[in-house]
Amino acid sequence: MTVEEKAGQVLMPSYSGTDPEAQAGTIERLHLAGSIIMGENVPLDAQNQVDPSAMAAVNARLAQAARADGRGWPGLIGVDQEGGVVARLGAPLTEWPAPMSYGAAGSVPLTKDAGRALASELAPLGFNVDFAPDTDVTIGPADPTIGARSMSGDPDAAARLGVAFSQGMQEAGLLPAVKHFPGHGSVTVDSHQSLPVQPAGVAELSARDWKPFQAAVAAGAPMVMTGHIAVPALEPGVPASLSRPTYAALRGMGFNGVAVTDALNMGAIQQQFPDGTAAPAALAAGADLLLMPADVGQAHAAIVRAAASGSLPAARLDEAAQRVATMMIWRGRTTPPAGSAPGSGSPLSARVSAAAVTVLAGPCSGPMVQGSVRLAGGSPQDRARFEAAASRAGLGLGEGPLVSLIGYGGAPAGGDIAVALDAPWPLQDSTAPVKMAVYGRSQGAFDALAAVLAGKATAPGKLPAAVGSFPAGTGCP
To answer: Which residues touch 217 (CB under 8 Å, ≥6 apart)?
Structure first.
């Protein structure tokens, strides 16, 4: 490969709009690894739902462009599809609850099944990479970024469940990328805006944040994503994604796969490394694949210049390009099983929510409400879904106890029954005597909630992280 081809092989950009032609042209011209699909790239039908055949056609065009220079391996066609708030493709694909549901349900087989089912709907559309699961260990309300994207506040549980989800994904033909090393669940600043600083030392990180990554590496994870987090114990002031000691720590775990950066267009990087300078710096530090540079042409040119000047050693660029190519040759040798139809995972998604619903305070058996309830909070869609679920459970709306729905980032609530639809932290200051967490706003999550309210089902979930005075593990016996 020429230097220009190698420089392209380590870049995976995003693009604007639903027409892939310009992106395909850029992939061909710069020899790029492939493309990530963001929400704005997803073609919609007349009902404003995902058009699966149009999505497949977009991905096929991008995949074709990645092979235009004669390379013998597939291009990377990726997406961020975790479930919960991070899901680029909506209906008719299955809507999954927040990943914290897996921690609340506590079932490794269920988590693996969910990873397989989620990936099996993406593979037929031409995706071969999903930047999931998030294996960050959350510290609770002080974590502003990850929240219910984390499966658990318990490092061992996050490790077990993260491996299970990843293995399920791989069985369905998608490459997982565990994220965000060295751990984004225990910092208090959002790296989309500015650079978080992780004050913990290496011993504390090894005992908490790094456990899920160590487990993923031991299980053969093909990709690990590095976050834009400064760790003074490793290298003060430098984002982990651009830090040589951070990549050395990751490789020290025995990781031989592809180290991919978090998106390079995020605030934590753009403020410190303008005009494409992050790309060669990340490669020189030890990254293999650079995700979403703000300007891929600038990034490509910067890599070629750095290789020419020697500031990016030729052997390091070779190693990075070879790791990406090796992963995709390996992926290309496996024929994924027949994929699943969009929406086919919905019954399993509902099972996950039914296993996760958690009562922090309130009765553990029998009906919580009789006949009818009043409803407050939530979005119009939340309220419509609650109403449909209540009807199926034999509950009316209009009078009776007040159920207060708390959405993503919502405030504590009063009323008679407070229900957290995302991270459970707002329940700690909610004044409602009954407190419940459902970790999702899918129809299945509302069905699980209504069934418990009506006494038609029990709440088997356990808190995956402490919520105020409610310790981790709180829930009905």
So the answer is: 224, 253, 254, 255
